[in-house]
Design brief:
Strands 8-7-16-17-18-15-19 form a seven-stranded mixed sheet. The protein has a five-stranded parallel sheet with strand order 10-3-2-14-20. Strands 1-13-12-11 form a four-stranded mixed sheet, with no helix packed on it. With about 500 residues, the chain is an alpha/beta fold. The chain binds flavin-adenine dinucleotide. Flavin-adenine dinucleotide (FAD) binds next to helix 1, strand 15, strand 19 and helix 19. It is found in: Mitochondrion inner membrane. Keywords: FAD, Flavoprotein, Heme biosynthesis, Mitochondrion, Oxidoreductase, Porphyrin biosynthesis. Pathway: Porphyrin-containing compound metabolism; protoporphyrin-IX biosynthesis; protoporphyrin-IX from protoporphyrinogen-IX: step 1/1.
């Protein structure tokens, strides 16, 4: 069988893989390095499914309402947020962005649910001065004591232990815990502070306090990031988050179009089944090349492979010779999440806001509910708009609550979502649209020791001179912004 040649293969066409291909191609264009007939300069993205985007996955109902199966909004702040907006601009998507500002109710009003009902989380200076349920003291009284908390001497600590130690048990239970459920669908008692919130972890290390660190630490400067007009606009208009016309699937779709227009091959329905490392024929060169075999029996050879597939997938592609690397990757596991999209006619929500999260100490089978129509009414159907919301369930507790995610009955998940919404929001009205999505292994869980594990993975690749890079949500941040920024850094260092 003919071996196809390329300079770089990118495995996985989720946002990480597409971003990696973008930054590679953009640098070739800058350096005026065009492809030649031997495959030099050629970039090929091999995506397993027919669709690009991975967990950026929107769908539209026949009536025109847009729902998200995965990511529903992206934050514009910080270096990583600005970098994403620069990318949006570079592919000509400025006009598709729908922002939400910091003063919008969807930003100001975030709730947690406890046995006593919904509680609005502090979002202003005045709200941290007064005591607000479910907390027994004002937030300020905890913050004042924080600089005097005992410092941790360990290399890593669970998020629960970190916040209990520095800000008290209530903050750990009613803030850190639900946020971990909202971001990672994970358990704050198992997740690593160092890996999940590295800036806060480092602030304690460096300044002895996260509050003092917040004032004194200076973020690393990246003068070429945040230069696009849309990144400037986000700053001036104080955006808090954004989505896109027709949902966030628009982003990977347009990114893929840009790649194809600029000569990158994006091949859908091309699941990779095997990676092999082969020595160049010139023994003096000693350089390894990489061979990738797909399930369709295509064979590709390249100078380098960027693996943006989840760690659990990547470990299964490697040759037996690199079992040690497979074993390291195998340790990065992910949680299963059920996402239930709902629409209601003429619904009056009891509160307006982003939605609410449920701490794990509360008797409830759900992680939280997002009030999608509040943040982005632009995605409601045009005629007779309904109220869209999404209920998230499972995560680190999936097996205990619902059993095997491969055999769970979607109608059980739907009735559990509706019962929770009735009990917690008092909504007993029947939804006019429902869709249950069961996502297997969708959010990586950065457990204690994750940072060391990722360092070991990089070290193995370096020490064995493997022509491969690893990018994606399995390693250094699960947000879309983190994934894109990691991809940029990984290919810049090639
Ligand atoms: C329910 C949910 C809600 C989320 N909400 C948010 C949010 O609001 N904001 C935010 O910033 N982030 C959010 N995230 C996180 C974010 O969406 C993901 O971390 C990010 O999209 C991961 O991108 P990725 O490219 O690294 O991985 P993936 O999206 O997993 O992409 C990997 C790609 O590899 C492909 N693939 C797998 N196996 C193979 C193979 N053998 N060969 C070839 N291709 C293969 C897959 O089909 C997929 O397209 C959410 C995630 C989930 C699941």
């Amino acid at each position: 069988m003919a071996i196809r040649q390329a300079e770089t293969l990118v495995l996985g066409g989720g946002i990480s893989g597409l971003a990696a291909a973008f930054y590679l191609r953009a640098s070739q264009i800058r350096e005026n390095r065009l492809e030649n007939h031997t495959g030099q300069g050629k970039i090929v993205v091999l995506e397993g499914s027919p669709r690009v985007g991975g967990w950026l996955d929107s769908f539209q109902t026949p009536e025109g309402a847009v729902h998200e199966r995965g990511t529903r909004s992206i934050r514009p702040v910080g270096v990583v947020g600005k970098n994403t907006l620069d990318l949006v601009s570079a592919i000509g998507l400025d006009d598709a962005v729908i922002p939400v500002t910091r003063s919008h109710p969807a930003t100001q009003n975030r709730f947690i649910y406890t046995q006593d009902g919904l509680h609005r989380l502090p979002s202003s200076l005045s709200s941290i001065l007064r005591r607000q349920a479910p907390f027994s003291q004002s937030l300020l009284s905890r913050l004042i004591k924080e600089p005097f908390a005992v410092k941790c001497k360990e290399d890593d600590e669970s998020i629960h232990d970190f916040f209990s130690r520095r800000l008290g048990k209530e903050i750990a239970e009613y803030l850190a815990n639900p946020f971990c459920r909202g971001i990672f669908a994970g358990d704050s008692k198992q997740l690593s502070m160092r890996a999940c919130f590295p800036a806060i972890f480092d602030a304690e290390r460096k300044y002895g306090s996260i509050i003092i660190g917040g004032f004194r630490s200076k973020p690393e400067k990246f003068p070429d990031i945040g230069t696009s007009s849309i990144a400037q606009r986000a700053k001036e208009q104080k955006w808090a988050s954004w989505t896109m016309t027709d949902g966030l699937q628009t982003f990977p779709n347009k990114l893929s179009d840009w790649l194809v227009e600029n000569g990158v091959e994006v091949r859908g329905s091309n699941p990779c089944s095997r990676i092999e490392f082969v020595q160049e024929s010139d023994p003096d060169d000693g350089q390894k090349r990489v061979r990738v075999v797909t399930e369709n029996q295509d064979v590709w050879e390249a100078d380098h492979v960027v693996c943006s597939t989840p760690a659990q997938v990547t470990q299964g592609l490697l040759p037996p010779k690199h079992q040690t690397l497979s074993n390291l990757l195998h340790q990065i596991t992910s949680s299963n999440v059920a996402v239930v999209n709902l629409e209601y006619d003429n619904l009056q929500l009891p509160v307006t806001g982003f939605g609410y999260l449920v701490p794990s100490s509360v008797q409830s089978k759900i992680l939280g509910v997002v009030f999608d129509s509040c943040a982005f009414p632009e995605l409601d159907r045009r005629k007779n708009p309904t109220t869209r919301m999404t209920c998230m369930m499972g995560g680190a507790w999936f097996h205990d609550l619902f059993g095997d995610p491969h055999s769970v009955d979607p109608s059980d998940l739907l009735s559990c979502a509706l019962t929770s919404i009735k009990d917690q929001l008092g909504i007993s009205q029947k939804p006019t649209f429902t869709k249950v999505n069961i996502h297997h292994d969708c959010i990586p869980q950065y457990k204690l020791g994750h940072t060391g594990l990722v360092d070991d993975i990089h070290l193995y690749i370096k020490d064995h001179h493997l022509p491969m890079s690893i990018v994606g949500s399995s390693y250094k941040g699960v947000s879309v912004n983190d994934c894109i920024f990691q991809a940029r850094q990984a290919v810049t260092s090639l």
